[in-house]
Amino acid sequence: MLAAFPIAALADISGTVTLAANTALSLDTGTTSASGGDILWSGTAMTPQTSATVDNISAVTGFSGASTFSALTQSTLSVFGAAYTKSPLTASALPVGDIFAVHTNAGYYAAVLVTAVSGTSISLQYVTFGVNSGPNITLVENNYGEIPPGFSNSGIAPGALFFIVGTGLATPGTVAVLQNSVGATLPATLNGSSVQVTVGGKTVTPAFYYAQPTALGLVMPSGTPTGSAQVTVTVGGQTSAAYTIQVVANAMGFDAYYGTGNGLGVATNAATGALYNYSNAIPPGTTVVLWGSGLGADPKPSRDTTYLGVTSIAADSINALTHIYVGGVDGGAPGYQGASGYPGLNQVNFTIPTSAPTGCNVSLVGVNAAGVPTNSITLPIGTGGCVDPASNISGSQLAGASALTTVNAGALAIGQSTAPAASGGTTVTQYAVANFQSLTGAATGANASQVSIGGCIVKQNPPAATSTASIGLDAGAITVAGPTGSALPLTAIAGIPGESYVQLASGSIPAGGGTFTFKASGGANIGPFSATLSFPGSQFVWTNQSAAATVTRASGLTVIWNWTPNSVGSYAHISGISTSTATGNASASFSCNASLFAGQFTVPGYILAALPAGTGTVTVEIDAENGAGIAASGLNYGTTLAFIGIQVNATFN
Fold first, then answer.
1. What own/partner pairs with CB < 8 Å and gap ≥ 24 does 88-92 have?
2. Are residues 156 and 247 in contact, defined by beta-carbon separation less than 8 angstroms?
3. How far lies 203's CA from each of 5, 230, 298, in Å?
């Protein structure tokens, strides 16, 4: 289904202002006052007010000044996520040219540039993105799966926890406080907000877990009919435009550790309740509890608003999932799946197959009787801290990085790509790439783009999705030298901060492989370094390319390859993407890692089912992460990668 996005008056507010000591500024309206607002300048510090939060962009990235300020967007500011805090910014941290961001009381993102400091006064230039009046819904999703509209496995089930994202969704300045359902009843109105869902002439009122201007957390009543539904939010007598969703019988979403809908999943020990993580992996054969929502209508509808506990399997089961696959291994149906006792929250008791692969990012996907998959998450499986040779990063490194506010990461790669040419035939390109980015610790911990050998994950993008902004890091001038030539400079890629590239001459990668050396002079963020990687060789053949020309998603896709030499430390990476104009250009991609020595791999039908019918590509690639990585000041971790890939055009039916 294609979501009906409401039309609302959206605009950016911008201006300049000089704040004397003890003056507040509302970035939602552009007005100043003696108190309140979003930020208050005391003369010695800038303090966020009420529910507003701040983040000093210049302190994190090293970038400052008017040109950087003018290039900032709402997407750029939102990428910092958990880095926003209530901590004041001291005057010493706000020199002329400094840029800081504010997540305002009404839920908007604002960029602020310090233009002058004089005594206890400070002058600012600001822009607040996308301000509008009245409630406005931009997204409705399952609280855990977060699968966007436009996909066969999206939708909200009766009895499920779901969220509404937008602006003006509650009284300005109100803060989200989680409501208690134990010995109480979740309210039908909260912080000035109420929600209605209308399906086939029946209107239901979801109960609130929390409400704030940018997001609402609710429980869909178990008595909600299935079908196309209209969702509206009313605040202060103003009602939003209707937002269309699909109410479906079941659409389970598993909880992810960092609330992203994918990456590291939440699993606890069924006997002790201990939480598993990168430092405490799950031994195969262990019974775990997976958490989430969307199995379907609760057999006890009063549990939609009130904690009732769980009395028995017979009374509280909601048997929606018929299979759970772990690293591609079928673990069958869960031992128990159903109510957890709390409104909307489901639990799934499941034993990890003894034959499941080990690693830090072992994939897990559930499937219902109709073959419709859940969101894909990953689990650390093994003993003690997980180990994942495919990503060349240990569990202890991931755990350490996830505890940081920001993580500076780098990657160096030598690649050879064979891809369809616009004029017909194929084009073979050999190249070197360097990429240095500042990520949040949460994004690093989620590790949502990684999967251990044997499994597959899916990333689904909504219609008209925009890419998340990157925060690039400066490592100075970078060169690369290979076994057949002199050092070549890498050139920055326009529009991709922190990434640089150089195309190598044909034959730069010898058939038998060779060693490549990257050198960097060092820049504003990353110090000088020298790093080497070994390319094992370019003798790679994808023997059944024609199988990917037309893919029947329900049947899966088997790819077969030959590779010489079979180098230790290498693995096969199979990926693809499909975009469908029938669902507003919604697209989804899959990513699988397989044993190189197996010579073939089948992308399961339950993975491809999460892609829309459409057109796209399939790529088979041999990856070799090798060398000592990158050692440089200012860098938390860095990897080196050699890869050789073949891409073909594909139609997904």
1. 88/45, 88/46, 88/47, 88/48, 89/45, 89/46, 89/47, 89/54, 89/56, 90/44, 90/45, 91/43, 91/44, 91/45, 91/117, 91/122
2. yes
3. 20, 9, 18
Please report the pLDDT score of residue 337 as a whole number: 98
Residue 283 buriedness (CB in 10 A; 0-12 / 13-18 / 19+)? middle
CB atoms within 10 A of CB 539: 14
Class of domain 136-247: mainly beta
Residue 339: CA count within 13 A, CB half-sphere: 27
Tokens of 467: 């890419």
Pick from 282, 460, 251: nearest CA to 362: 282
Phi-psi region of 354 (alpha: psi -120 to 50; beta: other; left: phi over 0): alpha
List CB contacts of 583: < 8 A, sequence separation 6 or more. Answer: 1, 2, 150, 151, 463, 612
Which residues, other chains included, contact 338 with Cβ-Cβ below 8 Å and sequence gap of 6+?
A: 295, 299, 310, 313, 316, 317, 318, 319, 346, 347
The DSSP output letter for 272 is T
**Residue type at position 6:** P
Cis? peptide before 565, omega within 30° of 0: yes
N- to C-terminal Cα separation, the chain: 17
Contact 360, 457 (CB under 8 A): no
Alpha carbons within 13 angstroms on the beta-carbon side of residue 214 total 15
Taken in order 538, 544, 547, 553, the sign of the CA dihedral is negative
Stretches where the chain sits below pLDDT 70 are: 1-11, 80-82, 132-133, 462-470, 538, 565-569, 583-584, 627
The answer to whether the beta carbons of residues 86 and 53 sit under 8 Å apart is: yes
> Quick check: 293 and 395 in contact, CB under 8 A?
no
Q: pLDDT of 546-573, one tens digit each?
A: 999 999 999 999 999 988 755 556 889 9
DSSP 519-578: EE---SSS--EEEEEEE--SEEEETTGGGGTEE-GGG-EEEEEEEES--TTEEEEEEEEE
- Is the four-CA dihedral 465, 249, 267, 311 of positive or negative sign? positive
Nearest to 552 by CA among 600, 608, 602: 608
- Tell me how far apart the alpha carbons of residues 453 and 441 are, in angstroms, rounded to a whole number: 24
Rounded to 10 degrees, the C-alpha dihedral 280/284/285/289 comes to 50
The full set of domain ranges for the chain reads 11-131, 136-247, 253-381, 395-652
Is the CB of residue 553 less than 8 Å from the CB of residue 605?
Answer: yes
Q: Of the candidates 384, 629, 470, which has an alpha carbon nearest to the alpha carbon of residue 76? A: 470
- In Å, what is the CA distance from 597 to each residue of 314, 562, 603? 46, 9, 17
